[in-house]
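We modelled the chain as a single entity of 431 amino acids. Its sequence is:
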Amino acid sequence: MVIHKSDAFPQTGAAWFIFLMVLLTTAGGCSSDRPAVYRIPSGCSVRDPEFARVMGNLLGPPLLPGNSCQTLLNGTQIFPAMLDAIHSAKKSITFETFIYWSGSIGQEFTDALSDRARAGVKVHVLIDWLGSSKINPRYIKTMRDAGVEVQEYHAFHFTNPTTLEQINHRTHRKLLVIDGRIGFIGGVGIADEWEGNANRPDHWRDNHYRMEGPIVAQVQAAFADNWMKTTGNVLVGDTYFPSVPDSGKTVAQIFKSSSQGGSESMQLMMLLSLASATKNVRIETAYFVPDAITQRYLIDANRRGVSVEIIVPGAKIDEKVVRVASRATWGKLLESGIRIYEYQPAMFHCKQLIADDFWVSIGSANFDNRSFRINDEANLNVLDSKFAIGQVAVFENDKQHSRQITYEQWQKRSLWEKASELIASLFDWEF
């Protein structure tokens, strides 16, 4: 059982009550279903055609050619692009998000979605009940009064037969589709914390991505997956799945995971990416609490001569206990030669893996137990050297604003830090 971050943490008295119930009932319960180890044969590189076939057949939907993917950095670029797309909608808007909070950004999205619904556009909004517990109820009423279909994912009510297991399973996906032709995915939440350009300590650093081309149908399918689970309604027809022409040369897929099906495919996809890297791996993640299996694959990659670099949040993090739990896992990684950096200017919320300057996985999934085993997640996976080089540039810029932590520094932690890490490690299933 894992509920730990402020973008996954109880925000109301009722939510805290449910959180404690789940904690007491399911603590550590996920671990019994875990495999002892994943055994991935070596020899396949991310540049080999075999790798694309495995990703498209064993793990996810096919990798599709003909797409364009635009990188959006921080709220300065992300929110205007999303709002412009919403305002342009003619037929349909589907929107799934974990965080939808009160504030100026929440109000802007509420107004934009309501406006399009009043204009006759079919608007479907799915927000996570727990993650969006800080939303002003007035926003939901405004949208519903305008004709927006608003649903809460795995909402708890005392009259609702929702199980504790369902309450623990959250949708962490961030998906927006306009007319079945324009898609967005990434890590941003609908909250004022993401405003600006991450140049203030109270604003968050994040990436989001705008897509066009055949890949948008896979974004729509990911939304429709949870919409059907929540409402029973199936979205079909040209309103949601129009014929879409090629928009570029990028080969991509939308990779989704859900613990409700007993799947740990997100972790397996990440491990296969690590196992198939031959030169370098760059990872950015907001919450880095790797289990023993993940640590092993990171270290194995490093021992094969693969350069492994990881950027995580520094002292400016929304949940200090997560940083403590993370640092408890660093010893073997740093000792093996893996380089870890802590981002300094602001809260770091990016999530991406880049392998061999060619394979990129970006979206909502972190390197932690919740993303790998409990949350519903969705990532954009891209096989494209030009796109990957662009993400490397983003990574390198973030690294310039980060402080490297060496093994010697890690060893010199204070007694208090070591004790805190020991306590946190006793509850590693919680992260």
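As a brief sanity check on the tokenised model: The first strand starts at residue 64 and ends at 73. DSSP finds 15 helices and 17 strands in the chain.
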